[in-house]
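Below is how a single chain appears once it has passed through the pipeline. First comes the sequence as given, then the structure the pipeline wrote out for it. We keep one example in the README because the format questions we get most often are answered faster by looking than by reading.
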Amino acid sequence: MIFRDLIILPEAEQDAAEAYAWYEQQESGLGEEFLRCVDACIQSIRRNPQIYRIIHESYRRAVLRRFPYVIFYEFVDETIIIYSVFHCSQDPNKWRSRLS
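Resulting structure:
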């Protein structure tokens, strides 16, 4: 059972919504598969938030299965904060600026 608080910032929700729309334009149903992979990754983070290593200051990165995306999050005081659902081909400075 999962008892950790979860906060998904609006920017991360926007990231996922934009990716969903793009994948749905490519193939009907692919956006739904993307969202299922995002949800599975978030549930993995909630089950064991410390399984993913710290990559920048106190921020961690979880890799999505099947899609070239990562989730950047922080685990502080039993709360998980998701900052970004980030496409791996984007400029790394973009996610660093969001985490700062």
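Residues 5-99 form a domain with the YaeB-like fold fold (CATH 3.30.2310.20).

See the next section for the split statistics.
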